[in-house]
Design goal:
Helix content is 43%, strand content 19%. The protein has a single domain, classed as Alpha-Beta Plaits (2-Layer Sandwich). It is an alpha+beta fold and 145 residues long. A hairpin with a 2-residue loop joins strand 2 and strand 3. The radius of gyration is 15 Å and the shape is globular.
């Protein structure tokens, strides 16, 4: 039986509420593992995950069986609950309502993986891919200024 073929590579970025530095070293690893599990459970292939204390990057080959909006609903909703209930139950934690998503050419796959895996260095050296560091909400704010 023929199967659907999918080569859709998507780079997601979303931020903590008000860009607060809540993704601390104490919770980052477990949070990334949880997000990875949610994406895999939704049949997406996780190519890279990483971020900074105020935002997360997720690079996936999205499954043919889930929409972008549903994947982000599962990832953001589930991970927010995971932080609040398990990783940091005595602290407030919330994601921004928006997210950015960018389609990636297969020829740029390695560059995007390297960019996500080296987030700390890119932020320290100010070698950022500015568009991919902002959610759509933040891009709209810049365009209006």
């Amino acid at each position: 039986m023929p199967q659907n073929q999918n080569r859709a590579l998507l780079h997601f970025v979303w931020a903590t509420y008000d860009r607060m530095p809540w993704v601390t070293n104490d919770i980052a690893h477990d949070l990334y593992q949880y997000i990875k599990k949610v994406a895999i459970d939704d049949r997406c292939e996780v190519l890279a995950i990483g971020g900074m204390p105020d935002h997360i990057h997720l690079f996936v080959r999205i499954a043919t069986t889930i929409s972008i909006a549903d994947l982000m609903k599962h990832v953001k909703g589930g991970s927010s609950r995971f932080v609040q209930r398990t990783l940091a139950p005595d602290t407030f934690f919330q994601w921004q309502g928006s997210y950015g998503v960018y389609s990636v050419s297969p020829s740029h796959k390695k560059r995007v993986v390297a960019y996500i895996q080296n987030q700390e260095r890119h932020h320290q050296e100010d070698t950022l891919w500015l568009e991919a560091e902002q959610t759509f909400e933040e891009q709209d704010d810049l365009e209006e200024a």
